Amino acid sequence: RDTKLSSRGIQEAKQLHQKFAQPSSDQDEPHQLHQILPEVELIVVSPLQRALQTLEIGLYSHFKNSRSPHQPAIVATPYASERVYLTSDVGSHIHELQEKYQFVDFESGFHPTYHPPHEWWWTPDISSVDKAPPREWRPFGQGQKYVNAGEPERSFHRRMQKLYDWLDSRKEQTIVLISHWGVIQYLSGHDFQNCEVKVMPFAKLRRHGSGLTAEEMDSIFIKGERSIPALKNDEEIQ
C-alpha cells in the first residue's frame, strides 16, 4: 500500500536533482531547468508517497538550501494522485504524511468533504446496498485477484477535469506538477519516463483528456467502460 520509491527510483530522483542543479549539455533540451527554478511560484504534488519522495529528493532540497527569500508554495492535492489500479495507489493517512513531509501543505488542496484524512483516494461508494460494484476494467478472467477495487474510467476522468480546473484557477504563473504517468498522460497526451521533466504552456494541456485512439482504448479499457457523460462544472467528485 502507498508504495515508496525503490532504490532505482531514489537514484532517478537524485538524477532529477542534478538536472535542476546545473546547465544541461543536451542540445535537444530547449529549457535550462536551473534557470527556471527562480520562476517557480507553486509546486503541486500527488499525496502518494512515491511522488512526495520525488519532490523531497529531486526538487525541494534546492529551495530548502537556498538563501533566496523566494520560496514557492508546495501543495498536495488528491486530484493529482494516480488512477487507483493496485494497492500501491491506495494512500496513507494525512496525519502520517504531515508528520513525514512537514514542508508540504496538506490542507488547501483537499476538499473538506470529499477528501477525509483517512481515505482521500478513490474508493467505491458503498453507501447504498442497491449500488452495483464498479465494472472491472483491469485484466481479469485468467486467475487475477485484486485486493482493492479499480477506479472506474468515469471517476478518473472527472477527477482529472477537477485537477485541470483547480490548476486553471491558480494565480501563479509558473507551476511544477509532480504526479504520475496516468495523470500527466491524460493532461498532456505525452508519455513521460520516471523523473522526466517537460516545460509546457497551460494552453497545451487538455481538460478532456489526451484523445486516445480506438486501438489505445482497446488496450486499456474493456467494452462498456468508455462512455463519459457530460459533466456540470460544479459537479463534485470523491
Could you walk me through the main structural features you see in this protein, from its secondary elements to its overall organization?
The structure is a single chain. The protein has helices at residues 7-21, 33-36, 49-64, 94-100, 153-169, 181-188, 214-220; strands at 42-45, 73-76, 175-178. The chain is mostly helical and 238 residues long. Strands 2-1-3 form a three-stranded parallel sheet. The longest helix has 17 residues, at 153-169. The model is unreliable at 220-238 (pLDDT under 50).
Topology:
Elements: H1 7-21, H2 33-36, E1 42-45, H3 49-64, E2 73-76, H4 94-100, H5 153-169, E3 175-178, H6 181-188, H7 214-220
Parallel strand pairs: 1-2, 1-3
Helix pairs in contact: 1-3
Low-pLDDT residue spans: 220-238
Structural class: mainly alpha
User: What is the number of helical segments per DSSP (H or I, 4+ residues)?
Assistant: 7
Shape: globular
The proportion of strand residues reads: 5-15%
How far apart are the termini?
19 Å
In which order are the strands of the major sheet placed?
2-1-3
**Record field, number of beta strands:** 3
